[in-house]
């Protein structure tokens, strides 16, 4: 089979209706939504890149006044926020949206409408973030927004509020899209495709979805508390009023370090697809690559405080997190040997995609080695808050994530468009980026060792600093030029690029078994999978992998989509409530002045309403049994009783709130009141959301539109309702009965 087919494909000429703007805005096709994610991320890449160039021109010369100190702070705040939340995560979700269903032989994602909603949260969050500039100035507390700089006493501008609400929008959309990918991989694989046979990009996207589901709620909880501080006068993160700025750092980095792996794991998957194809060999050590990625997911939640060694956590905490940081380097670093062994002895073709994959290996190793250095606490103390940290971070995210995305772009562009990208322009882009990245960030490694602090808008004319900053700025210009080359390459290739054919690379996975670009339904017939390289098996039946290498058979069982999504959502919400309860325990461990749980709460009365809420779980269970038995009248009665019991609980909570407010106990009185109203308030909102859902189900049942064949939907609602009850048992035990205080 030739490497590149030259014949036109049947889908080159799309119908005019398919190309209308309205069809794109209203689409629920996973491929179009994936393209929308990628295009939106590209737009914000231009914005974030411009912000980076402005900062580099300011730092070109010592004591420069190209930017004011305030505007420089706004630029580095929005550059970091943009690149992480509006570029890195969306572009990876875009590729996952487009290719995960194709690679597992599915028609679409599990929940197409949820997929569309998840995407539209992205531009909404971006608009909120950048609308802040129209209020007089942009956010300026850093992309990490450390307290107390982000609290009202130190930051009165409403731009900070836009930053918080924008990130909350992006967080909700990210969790929703991750639940969709998670359920799609578990529930919609083609016949024969066991989890041990999925392509590694699918597996890495699956791992990314787990990380996002469990990490983003930590940020959402911290943002909600910060917003309550700013809007309602609480003091979670104000040390002057008893709050803790350190608690913000803990909550942020509980999200922040898994976020690094959210950004790098899909790139691992991209490289794991590109290198075998252009080495003409199967991936070496598939099982190890997959299992080590799962180990990374587990370990990533136990290393967050290595970002906080300079805080003074104590020797015990420093040792624990230093060991964790060293351990997580092992499953991350050993993959380099898997990819290298895959190339060893292979028939390597240095296409642009392969060049970026090889550069990924080299640059990511540099970033990884400088990261391991930070696991040594004394070295971290010396280099923290210097440009060495900036250099390390960018070697990981540019040398890792960005180079992985570039490799994937050249690899999958023919499948997405039916056209080939220009290889000559691709190599120009490659060398501009390789030189530019190393010029910029290797210089910053040296600047960090020489003592130049980060987050400063200017610097003294110290020996060697100006020369290295000039080199760094020239490197940034080279990367910008490389990006323009890529955009020109995409534009010209879409208009007049060489036709690609269905499988121009002779690749192995299922997306190459359909036309380029794929039809709306993806496949005319869902293929059956017998190995990890199904297209190789189709093209080379005499040398099929399933004949020479046995992989675990597919049981054929697939979990229910509705119930699986409910459990994924519950896992996410559990993390959210866990952090709220941690804040309650931290701030109420010792009795303080003012209202406390002992002198303000009526345990007996709330206990009675608690019985009502717990009883609603029992009545819901009876409703499930009645629906399964086809007893519609009994089903409606039990469901009505469930709603009534839940409503009684909410009425009791409202009664309690009115009594507290009449006693002048408001959320801004002290930290007990702040944590009490926050924990119980968010729980109450979840109960109300559950009551609304139950009411919709009851209304459908009254119209005979909710029959026994929809038991799975009711089961998913039940998972949520029982979760709300379990959370309240924990809240009641801690807040009202005083456990852990």
Automatic annotation (TrEMBL):
Residues 18-530 form the Cytochrome oxidase subunit I profile domain. CDD domains: Heme_Cu_Oxidase_III_like (cd00386). Pathway: Energy metabolism; oxidative phosphorylation. It catalyses: 4 Fe(II)-[cytochrome c] + O2 + 8 H(+)(in) = 4 Fe(III)-[cytochrome c] + 2 H2O + 4 H(+)(out). The chain crosses the membrane at residues 35-61, 81-104, 116-134, 162-188, 200-228, 248-271, 283-303, 309-330, 350-377, 389-413, 425-447, 467-488, 566-587, 607-627, 639-660, 672-701, 713-739. GO terms for cellular component: plasma membrane. PROSITE patterns: COX1 (PS50855), COX1_CUB (PS00077), COX3 (PS50253). Its EC number is 7.1.1.9. GO terms for molecular function: cytochrome-c oxidase activity; heme binding; metal ion binding. It is a multi-pass membrane protein. Keywords: Cell membrane, Copper, Electron transport, Heme, Iron, Membrane, Metal-binding, Respiratory chain, Translocase, Transmembrane, Transmembrane helix, Transport. Residues 535-740 form the Heme-copper oxidase subunit III family profile domain. It is an enzyme of class 7 (translocase). It is found in: Cell membrane. Belongs to the cytochrome c oxidase subunit 3 family. Belongs to the heme-copper respiratory oxidase family. Heterooctamer of two A chains, two B chains, two C chains and two D chains. PANTHER family: CYTOCHROME C OXIDASE SUBUNIT 1. This is Cytochrome c oxidase subunit 1.
């Amino acid at each position: 089979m030739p490497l590149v087919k030259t014949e036109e494909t049947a889908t080159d000429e799309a119908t005019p209706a398919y190309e209308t703007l309205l069809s794109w805005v209203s689409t629920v096709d996973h491929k179009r939504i994936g393209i929308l994610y990628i295009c939106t991320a590209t737009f914000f890449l231009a914005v974030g890149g411009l912000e980076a160039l402005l900062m580099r021109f300011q730092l070109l010369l010592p004591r420069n006044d190209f930017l004011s100190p305030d505007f420089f702070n706004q630029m580095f705040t929005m550059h970091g926020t943009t690149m992480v939340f509006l570029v890195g995560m969306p572009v990876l979700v875009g590729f996952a949206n487009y290719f995960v269903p194709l690679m597992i032989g599915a028609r679409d994602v599990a929940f197409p409408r949820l997929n569309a909603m998840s995407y539209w949260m992205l531009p909404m969050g971006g608009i909120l973030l950048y609308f802040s500039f129209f209020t007089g100035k942009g956010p300026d507390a850093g992309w990490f927004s450390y307290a107390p700089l982000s609290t009202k006493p130190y930051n009165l501008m409403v731009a900070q509020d836009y930053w918080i609400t924008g990130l909350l929008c992006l967080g909700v959309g990210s969790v929703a899209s991750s639940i969709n990918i998670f359920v799609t991989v578990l529930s919609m694989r083609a016949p024969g495709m066991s989890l041990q046979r999925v392509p590694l990009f699918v597996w890495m996207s699956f791992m990314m979805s787990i990380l996002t589901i469990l990490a983003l709620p930590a940020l959402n909880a911290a943002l909600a508390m910060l917003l309550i501080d700013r809007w309602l006068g609480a003091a979670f993160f104000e040390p002057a009023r008893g709050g803790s700025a350190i608690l913000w750092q803990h909550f942020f980095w509980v999200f922040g370090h898994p976020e690094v792996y959210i950004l790098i794991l899909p790139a691992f998957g991209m490289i794991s697809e590109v290198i075998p194809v252009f080495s003409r060999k199967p991936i070496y050590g598939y099982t190890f690559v997959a299992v080590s990625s799962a180990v990374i997911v587990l370990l990533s939640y136990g290393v967050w405080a290595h970002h906080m060694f300079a805080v003074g956590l104590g020797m015990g905490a420093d040792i624990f997190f230093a060991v964790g940081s060293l351990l997580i380097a092992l499953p991350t670093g050993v993959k380099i040997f898997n990819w290298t062994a895959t190339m060893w002895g292979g028939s390597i073709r240095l296409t642009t995609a392969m060049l970026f994959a090889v550069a990924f290996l080299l640059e990511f190793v540099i970033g990884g080695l400088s990261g391991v250095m930070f696991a040594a606490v004394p070295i971290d103390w010396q280099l923290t808050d210097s440009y060495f940290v900036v250099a390390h971070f960018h070697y990981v995210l540019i040398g890792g994530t960005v180079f992985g995305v570039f490799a994937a772009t050249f690899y999958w562009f023919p499948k997405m468009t039916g056209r080939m990208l220009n290889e000559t322009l691709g190599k120009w882009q490659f060398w501009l980026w390789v030189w530019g990245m190393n010029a910029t960030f290797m210089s910053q490694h040296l600047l960090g060792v020489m003592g130049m602090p980060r987050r400063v808008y200017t610097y003294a004319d110290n020996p060697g600093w100006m020369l290295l900053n000039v080199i760094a700025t020239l490197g940034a210009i080279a990367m910008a030029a490389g990006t323009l080359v890529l955009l020109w390459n995409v534009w010209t290739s879409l208009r007049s690029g060489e036709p690609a054919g269905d499988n121009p690379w002779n690749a192995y996975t299922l997306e190459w078994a359909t036309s380029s670009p794929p039809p709306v339904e993806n496949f005319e017939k869902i293929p059956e999978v017998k190995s990890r390289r199904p297209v190789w098996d189709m093209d080379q039946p005499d040398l099929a992998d399933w004949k020479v290498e046995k992989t675990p058979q597919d049981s054929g069982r697939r979990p229910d989509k509705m119930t699986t999504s409910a459990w994924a959502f519950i896992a996410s919400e559990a993390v959210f409530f866990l952090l709220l309860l941690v804040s309650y325990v931290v701030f109420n461990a010792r009795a303080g002045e003012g209202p406390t749980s002992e002198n303000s709460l009526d345990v007996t009365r709330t206990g009675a309403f608690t019985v009502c809420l717990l009883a609603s779980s029992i009545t819901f269970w009876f409703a499930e049994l009645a629906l399964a038995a086809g007893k519609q009248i009994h089903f409606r009665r039990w469901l009505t009783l469930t709603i009534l019991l839940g409503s009684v609980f909410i009425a009791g909570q409202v009664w309690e709130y009115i009594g507290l407010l009449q006693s002048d106990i408001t959320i801004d009185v002290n930290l007990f009141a702040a944590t009490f109203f926050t924990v119980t308030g968010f729980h109450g909102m979840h109960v109300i959301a559950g009551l609304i859902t139950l009411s919709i189900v009851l209304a459908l049942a009254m119209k005979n539109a909710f029959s026994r064949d929809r038991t799975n939907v009711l089961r998913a609602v039940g998972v949520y309702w029982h979760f709300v009850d379990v959370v309240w048992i924990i809240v009641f035990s801690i807040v009202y009965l005083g456990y852990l205080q």
